[in-house]
Every structure is written in C-alpha cells, then in structure tokens.
Design brief:
Elements lengths: L3 E3 L11 H9 L3 E3 L8 H7 L3 E3 L8 H8 L4 E4 L4 H4 L6 E4 L3 H13 L1 H19 L1 H13 L1
Parallel strand pairs: 1-2, 3-4, 4-5
Helix pairs in contact: 3-6
C-alpha cells in the first residue's frame, strides 16, 4: 500500500526494457515525473517518506544530501560517494542494488516509523555539521586555493 515516486529522466546509459518502461508508465502506484525543474524539487521531497537511491556509479549524490538536510531517512547503495554522506544505521542505511534488499529495508522503515524518524533527524544533524555551505567553502579554499 505504497507509492513509488520516480523523479527525473529514465537512464539512457542503462536503458530499461520496453516492458519495464510500460510498467512504470501504466502502474497506478508508480508516479514517474520525467525531467523536473530544480525549483520544483522541494515539492517532490515533500511527498517522500524515504529517499531510495540504488546506484552503481552516482558520485556524491546531491539528492542524498538534500534529502538528509530536510530530515528524510535515506537508503542508498554504499559503494559510491554516498559513503561520505550517509552513516549506516545512523542517518540511513546502505542497500544492495537488488530487489530483495531494497524491499526489505523500505518495508522496515514503513513498519518502524520511529527508526525512520531517527534516521531523518540524525541525517539533518549530520548535514548541518558536515555539509553546510560555509564548511564546504572553507574546505575548497583550504584544499584548492592554498
């Protein structure tokens, strides 16, 4: 009894089968936005209970930082730049990029809203402490310009 919100375009590099694309476009519990304007992102974040980012190649995903900064629990694959944005079992959880692991971890957060809130609150604190603009600017200045 959940809805999957897919925000952004379909990948061209890892093209989906026509069967999968038809399933995405014709399943009532799947909302596919296609490309969205940056200024519309807060609206889409407001619709989410959890951000799920299963990826093999995403760098430090801005989406992970943004979701955590507004207090959403995040489930992300842990072999990319997300390792730097997520503290496993504290601000969210690392997932394997497979159906069973994603299903089980999403279900866990649906059933345990207290845990989801815990991850969201800790994620926000982690973003403020480690990813605030002034901290990032100071790091860039220190490492790049000095």
């Amino acid at each position: 009894n959940i809805t999957l919100l897919l925000v952004g375009p379909l990948e061209e590099r890892d093209e989906l089968t026509s069967v999968t694309v038809n399933l995405i476009k014709n399943t009532p519990n799947i909302i596919f936005t296609g490309n969205v304007d940056r200024e519309d992102l807060p609206y889409y974040y407001s619709l989410m209970d959890t951000l799920v980012l299963p990826t093999y190649r995403e760098g430090l995903g801005t989406v992970t930082l943004e979701a955590s900064s507004i207090g959403l629990p995040v489930l992300v694959s842990g072999h990319t730049g997300s390792r730097d944005a997520v503290i496993d079992k504290t601000t969210g959880e690392f997932i394997k990029v497979n159906t069973n692991d994603i299903f089980n971890k999403v279900e866990k957060l649906i059933k345990n809203r207290k845990l989801a809130s815990y991850y969201g609150e800790n994620g926000r604190k982690h973003m403020i402490k480690n990813f605030a603009q002034n901290i990032i600017w100071e790091e860039i200045n220190r490492k790049v310009y000095k």
